[in-house]
Amino acid sequence: MTLAAAASFMVYENAMEMLGIIKEENYNPITHGYSFTAPSRVGSLVSRLSLNFGGMVGKQVLEIACGGGNVADRFAEEGAVAYGFDYNKKLIKLADMLADELIGHNIIDPSNKPAFFQGRYVRAISYQRDAKSQEYCMPYQTYLLSMDTLARFHSLGTSPHDMDFWYVYPWPGEVGNMMRMFRYYAKKDAVLALYKEDRRGQQILKFFDGLENHSISDREFEIWVKK
User: Fold this and answer.
1) Distance from C-alpha of 217 to C-alpha of 119, rounded to nearest angstrom
2) The domain 3-226 belongs to what CATH superfamily?
3) Over the stretch 162-207, which tens digit does the pLDDT of each residue have?
């Protein structure tokens, strides 16, 4: 475990206790569940993404349902401009405390502190356009960012379309909707990293319309590129 990972884990546990946050009380905007990606796994992911996609300095990164923000922090350590949102106000406070502590340990540059804010995504029904007739058909469920969340991006001088990397820890049943949301907002060649802890051992998807599965996908992470 790197110094950053060790510090993140220590600060995270201390902040959780300080804020009185219990695992069952922290929730995802849709499923009301909670998750936390281990710092050592985050470090490995960021290193591989940096190696395969031209480094992290100056790249914009979004962590969806960020919780304590440890993923955004790890990207920021590598020089990325990181953002994270979560529906739970306590978790946003936790993420800010954790980032400040890492700045205090000289792990994150003070000028590159991740921006954390309250935000959410909502269920929506979309329609697929038939390739031949160009008529809309086959309704399907997806996720879209709420208007207030989009407004927060705007207030920070950016937008979901500007993100170079997206990260999400999807709960079972969320994967397809998360990929559709990424496909809807992401710019060309943007990268989506999906953590697979709850689906480990399952076959990696090889095809999703409009996205390409990258060769560095493994048993823990699926990496997709917007085409």
Assistant:
1) 28
2) Vaccinia Virus protein VP39 (3.40.50.150)
3) 999 999 988 777 888 888 899 999 999 999 999 875 554 444 555 5
